[in-house]
Write a structure and sequence with these properties.
By secondary structure, the protein is of the alpha+beta class. The protein has helices at about 30-40, 120-135, 140-145, 150-160, 165-170, 175-195, and strands spanning about 1-10, 20-25, 45, 60-70, 80-95, 100-105.
Length: about 200
């Protein structure tokens, strides 16, 4: 079943079902988007631009989030936290007069919370340590080990310094096990080539 979504194109910003994404909203068109969303169903479709341009072309798959927390600042800006509801596929972009873009989208079926095999969990924790150490990141590893599998995998996908195409590939993977495997591959690739500014296309 299709639904109408107001979308926020933002490179590198990934939202997954059951995950949270804090955002600082300052551009006038996206302040209008948040105001409109709060007056209706509190939903915003997060999507990555595929390339430069105005308006930029969009990837086909995004994730719709519900505004779970909002702080309206005195100058009209917002600090919000989105809670991921479901991934969506864009069917077509709508011709609208709003300053923000709107699409007709199909919500993708939602999997239940998943777990990793013990080997996959150990592999992603080990590779994360190696990757973070290589980049000089300071990480509370004790807190990391307490995360459930889904929070760990999707959290890494959100914050790791991968290029937009790699982040999009992580969003489009259907299973948590496959996403964890792809993250390990990406960390190994970027860990070796990161200084050269490598990207995966």
């Amino acid at each position: 079943m299709s639904t109408r979504l107001s979308v926020f194109p933002l490179s590198g910003a990934l939202l997954f079902p059951r995950s949270r994404l804090p955002l600082h909203i300052f551009e006038p068109r996206y302040r209008a988007l948040v105001t409109d969303s709060l007056a209706r169903d509190r939903r915003i479709g997060m999507i990555q631009p595929r390339a430069e341009g105005e308006p930029p072309p969009l990837f086909d798959i995004g994730c719709v989030g519900r505004i779970a927390e909002v702080e309206a600042l005195p100058d009209g800006r917002f600090d919000i936290v989105l809670e991921g509801l479901a991934r969506f596929a864009i069917l077509r972009e709508l011709d609208v007069v709003t300053p923000f873009r709107q699409v007709e989208a199909e919500l993708m079926s939602q999997s239940e919370s998943e777990t990793l095999s013990l080997g996959s969990r150990a592999s992603i924790e080990m590779e994360s340590r190696r990757f973070a150490d290589g980049l000089g990141y300071v990480v509370d590893w004790e807190a990391v080990t307490r995360l459930d599998d889904e929070a760990l995998v999707n959290g890494i996908a959100q914050i790791a310094p991968f290029d937009a195409a790699s982040k999009q590939a992580l969003l489009e993977v259907d299973s948590l096990e496959d996403r964890a495997s792809l993250i390990v591959q990406l960390m190994q690739f970027f860990g070796r080539h990161g200084e050269e500014g490598a990207t995966l296309q």
